[in-house]
Amino acid sequence: MAKSYDVTSAGVNPAEDRAHRMRMYFIAMTLRVACVVSLFWVRDWWVLLSAAGAIFLPWFAVLVGNAVAHGGEQVPDAPEPLQIEASEAEPIEATDVAHEVIVVDVDPERRGSHPRPQTPGAEL
Predict the structure, then answer these.
(1) What angle do CA 105, 111, 115 make, to 5 degrees?
(2) Is the pLDDT of residue 122 over 60?
(3) What UniProt keywords apply to this chain's record, in alphabetical order (predicted)?
(4) If pLDDT is split at 50, 70 and 90, which confidence band does 55 have?
(5) Which residues contact 112 (CB under 8 A, 6 or more apart)?
(6) What does each C-alpha distance from 2 to 5, 79 come to in angstroms?
(7) pLDDT score of 40
(8) Is the pLDDT of residue 116 over 80?
(9) Which secondary structure element, helix H or strand E, spans residue 30, and what is its range?
(10) Can you give the pLDDT at residue 97?
(11) Whether residue 5 has pLDDT greater than 60
(12) Angle formed by the axes of helices 46-66 and 14-38, nearest 10°
């Protein structure tokens, strides 16, 4: 079997990630409602625990709701970089280049130098 290469580090499916974050937010806010309701009948130090839950759970729920999963932080496979080496080319001498002459033999024409054909009724 051929070796498989991972070409992306995309991570988790966005729909699944959103559903997971919504579930976690719902659970945290349900616990908060339970803490607020329990403040009416609990006594002693349990009031402090319920009050702390009612105060800090919304902060925790927002943190969990906004935390986007980035996947397993898996780096995609990359090939080894190529080594670039200088080749040993012969230097070009200035005398060799001076003997090459390029001749361009074209009639010099300008765009507006040709007479335009006159069409009846068309005046500029």
Answers:
(1) 110
(2) no
(3) Membrane, Transmembrane, Transmembrane helix
(4) very high
(5) none
(6) 10, 16
(7) 92
(8) no
(9) helix 14-38
(10) 59
(11) no
(12) 160
Chain position carrying tokens 């002693």: 44
Whose structure tokens read 């990359």? 78
The number of C-alpha atoms within 13 Å of 123 and in the hemisphere containing its C-beta is: 1
And the tokens for 38?
A: 């329990």
Residue 63 has a CB neighbour count (10 Å cut-off) of 12
| Tokens (6 digits) for 94 | 């200035």
Q: Which of the two residues, 48 and 72, has the higher pLDDT score?
A: 48
Check residue 40 and report its DSSP letter: T
Give me the pLDDT at residue 109, please: 67
Q: What values do phi and psi take at 59, rounded to 5?
A: -60, -45
**Rounded to whole angstroms, how far apart are CA atoms 112 and 119?**
17
